[in-house]
Specification:
This protein is of the alpha/beta class. 43% of the residues lie in helices and 11% in strands. The protein is built from 24 helices and 15 strands. The protein has helices at residues 11-16, 26-35, 46-61, 78-84, 121-132, 159-167, 175-188, 205-222, 228-235, 256-264, 316-330, 332-344, 350-353, 357-371, 383-394, 404-407, 415-418, 420-428, 439-450, 469-475, 492-495, 498-501, 511-521, 527-536; strands spanning 19-20, 39-42, 69-73, 91-96, 102-107, 110-115, 138-141, 194-198, 240-241, 245-248, 273-274, 280-281, 284-287, 292-296, 312-314. A 6-stranded parallel beta sheet has the order 6-3-2-7-8-9, sandwiched between helices. Strands 1-5-4-13 form a 4-stranded mixed beta sheet. A hairpin with a 5-residue loop joins strand 11 and strand 12 (280-281). Helix 11 (316-330) packs across helix 15 (383-394), helix 12 runs antiparallel to helix 14 and helix 14 (357-371) crosses helix 24. 50% of the residues are buried.
């Protein structure tokens, strides 16, 4: 069985192999999407294929939509060439259940995959035509938080942003530049309203993408590329809205174990490929079953009935509360803790870490003991239920091949929210004191120890990519395992940096505690394990 439109016409063979096929006329879906496009998604990777595309498929199958959606890739065009084009834009979603079973679903709601770049004129002109269509209601994004960045940590514009400012809409290269150029196309075609919806896993994502689009617009206005009227249209949220969202679904890289299982079952063309930009592509995508998407219901040109596909449609305050619950307490800080300690202890699987009594106890202390007193309760999801699902079902799933190395990516960009917000809450609320915290400081100390790139056995390992890694490692230069005294004077600049942690940890009385913990972790080979045992089993 090779994934293609022609192949899935033999429904009996696919269904006999345990595959759920789309329950709609694929050609009719294509025609309807071409005639009246409603939804374009930027970031054509695994999360989109496992989540957004499946939402639209559900709506089509329920008779609540006729057309599908378009995928647009802004960065790694081999994803389009390797993952979509050879398979008629179909994907095989493999849902990995905790009992080892695999649910297999063909996702067929993608009507086309496009390279969002003026360097590919045919695709670019197609996108421009879609944006000119009054039927377009929303565009969504999974381009990671870095995709919205126009400035660096020093507040200066990044070289790519500067290049786009100077080049203008006709030759833009950044994701934000391309999206702003396409919005300009829509404005020139009459300016029908639409929603610009970030579904990236970052705090206040709607605010972030709006700020970047407005900045790009203002820079082009200053250089004469766009009119004042266009700038006013972009800034008017009754015309272009930027809803806030919270998304949660673990979608790891396509796993060799899944690839092998599919090949053994007779599926062809399921081999994983690595692109020139180090992306992982395959005809299949593997993911966990639990998923959450909460969206601020602000769509000036209408929207698909997403609530009928399981999406929470609500107000901004509730979205913000759900996001804070997840990112500051119930999932993300636990993930980052497992990432850094997993690398230090030589783990290659999050699920395997959950069998480690110290690591499981550590994340329970961080989330359930220290986080819950200040957790944000959104009302629509119970924090206690959510965190138990994470700890008892999601992280321990042995068939979900996620790694601490992947989760450790860009940690410096995450800790201000994942740990910093709880620390600030302890500082601000009466009766609480950040100095009473033990396990969140231990997680931060673990990250400092991780930055040395030496595991608990004293062996070197490669730290995951992080924009601040060179700077942070330079500050820790000379710190060596077995010599805790080598840490003297090296940590204070890092711990007092509010850009990293959201506040000055020294001013809050935590720097000395964290420094002491790092010294314990540096005592010698085996010190990481010994330190965890000392704090968790006193």
């Amino acid at each position: 069985m090779k994934l293609s439109y022609e192949s899935i016409q033999d429904r009996k063979a696919w269904e006999a192999a345990g595959v759920t096929l789309p329950k709609f006329d694929w050609k009719a879906m294509h025609a309807a999407t071409e005639k009246a496009p409603t939804w374009v998604h930027f970031g054509a990777g695994s999360l989109f294929r496992a989540f957004h595309a499946l939402l639209q498929q559900s709506l089509i199958e329920q008779g609540l939509a006729e057309g599908g959606l378009y995928a647009a890739e802004t960065f790694d065009y081999e994803i389009v060439e390797n993952t979509y084009a050879p398979y008629d834009n179909l994907s095989l979603l493999v849902t990995l259940l905790p009992d080892g079973k695999m649910e297999k679903t063909v996702v067929g709601s993608v009507a086309g995959a496009l390279r969002a770049d003026p360097a590919y004129p045919e695709d670019w002109e197609k996108l421009k035509a879609i944006f000119r269509s009054p039927s377009l209601q929303l565009i969504t994004f999974t381009i990671t938080e870095k995709g919205y960045a126009l400035t660096g940590l020093d507040g200066r514009f990044l070289p790519l942003a500067e290049k786009d400012f100077a080049a203008g809409p006709e030759a833009c290269a950044s994701a934000i530049g391309k999206v702003t150029a396409l919005l300009l196309e829509r404005f020139r075609a009459g300016g029908t309203p639409m929603a610009v919806v970030s579904t990236d896993n970052c705090s206040r994502n709607g605010e972030k993408i709006r700020a970047s689009v407005v900045t790009m617009t203002e820079q082009w206005l200053e250089r004469g590329f766009v009119s004042r009227a266009f700038a006013a249209w972009v800034e008017n949220e009754e015309m272009v809205s930027f809803p806030w969202t919270m998304i949660d679904k673990i979608t790891p890289r396509p796993a060799p174990e899944v690839e092998q299982a599919l090949q053994a079952a007779g599926f062809e063309g399921m081999n994983v490929k690595i692109t020139g930009k180090k992306g992982y592509t395959a005809a299949f995508v593997n993911a966990e079953k639990p998923q959450y998407l909460v969206i601020e219901d602000r769509f000036p040109n209408g929207r698909p009935p997403l609530e009928k596909a399981g999406v929470f449609m609500t107000d901004r305050e509730t979205v913000n509360k759900v996001e804070r619950m997840k990112v500051t307490t119930c999932l993300n800080p636990l993930h980052t803790t497992l990432a850094v300690y997993g690398c230090l202890l030589g783990y290659r699987s999050i699920a395997d870490e959950m069998k480690d009594p110290e690591l499981k106890a550590l994340i329970e202390k961080i989330g359930c003991t220290e986080g819950m007193p200040v957790v944000t309760d959104p009302g629509i999801i119970k924090p206690a239920d959510f965190i138990r699902e994470v700890i008892d079902q999601r992280f321990p799933n042995p068939f979900l091949p996620d790694t601490p190395q992947r989760i450790a990516l860009d940690t410096s960009q995450k800790v201000s929210i994942r740990f910093g917000e709880t620390i600030k809450a302890y500082a601000e609320r009466p009766g609480l004191d950040p100095r009473s915290l033990t396990f969140i400081p231990l997680a931060i100390a673990g990250w400092m120890r991780y930055l040395l790139g030496v595991n608990d056995a004293g062996e070197p390992f490669e730290c995951s990519s992080d924009p601040m890694l060179p700077e942070l490692q330079a500050k820790l230069s000379g710190v060596t395992l077995g010599h805790p005294e080598s840490l003297d004077g090296k940590l204070r600049d890092i711990l007092s940096n509010p850009v990293i942690f959201g506040s000055d940890l020294a001013a809050l009385g935590l720097a000395e505690k964290i420094e002491g913990m790092v010294r314990e972790l540096l005592a010698g080979p085996g010190a990481v394990r010994a330190t965890l045992k000392r704090y968790l089993h006193p």
